[in-house]
Design brief:
Layout lengths: L2 H23 L7 H4 L2 E4 L6 E4 L1 H7 L3 E2 L3 E9 L2 E9 L2 E6 L6 E4 L4 H17 L1
Antiparallel strand pairs: 1-2, 3-6, 4-5, 6-7
Length: about 130
């Protein structure tokens, strides 16, 4: 990728991150059980358990966006399922272990999932 392409990608990431933080602060994700319940992560160094609520990290902006990856996703069509390739940009939360102080990365959801959730919340507010 050229320097210009990297700069545009970085600016896009900054805009996307700001949008997620803004939407989280507006409580858009508060009713999402994936984001608003406690999850356990294991430290990759010492194996101790760390408890975290993803939504806390989204609201505070303590996350970064990874590089977009192509993944296979199962899509429902009529009475069958089909695998399709789609882009997913991981949300990366860095957690410091309380026991050994090593840094651990957790990738709970993708940017695309969060943007879809924002759109769905907006349509439910309009029609609900």
């Amino acid at each position: 990728m050229s320097q210009r392409g990297r700069d545009q990608s970085k600016k896009s990431h900054q805009n996307d991150k700001k949008r997620i933080v803004d939407e989280a602060k507006k409580n858009i994700f508060d009713r999402n059980p994936l984001l608003n319940t406690a999850h356990q992560a294991l430290c990759k160094n010492c194996g101790s358990r760390m408890s975290l609520i993803y939504l806390d990290y989204l609201k505070s902006g303590r996350f970064k966006l990874g590089e977009a990856e192509t993944v296979e996703a199962l899509q429902a069509y009529a009475s069958s399922f089909v695998y399709e390739k789609e882009q997913a940009t991981p949300i990366i939360i860095e957690v410091k272990c309380a026991q050994c102080e090593s840094k651990n990365e957790v990738k709970p959801v993708s940017l695309e999932y969060l943007l879809f959730t924002v759109g769905k919340s907006r349509s439910e507010q309009i029609y609900g």
